[in-house]
Input
Amino acid sequence: MKPIVLSLAKSDLKEIHERLVEFGNIPPKKFRDSFSGLCSNITSMPYMYPKYELNPNYHKAVIEYDYFVFYKVEKSGNKERAAIYRVLHGKRDISPLIENLK
Output
């Protein structure tokens, strides 16, 4: 079960990459490697990360540079898939961005 990165999360990742390149103090490759590692963890153990306390429909994982990855394990019949909804920096006011997700 490889996680599916939804369009909003793809936009988040693109914005993060642009900021890392622009400011140049953090190598984007290190962030990408951390995100890839998280995807591997979700693939093998989708429930290993805790539920997000303000919206328990989502799990929250922390990766490099204090970025939070919000994902949901969705079930359809006997199948499960993990869907990554957002990737946000921890210093942002993330509550309204996650509470309103469906």
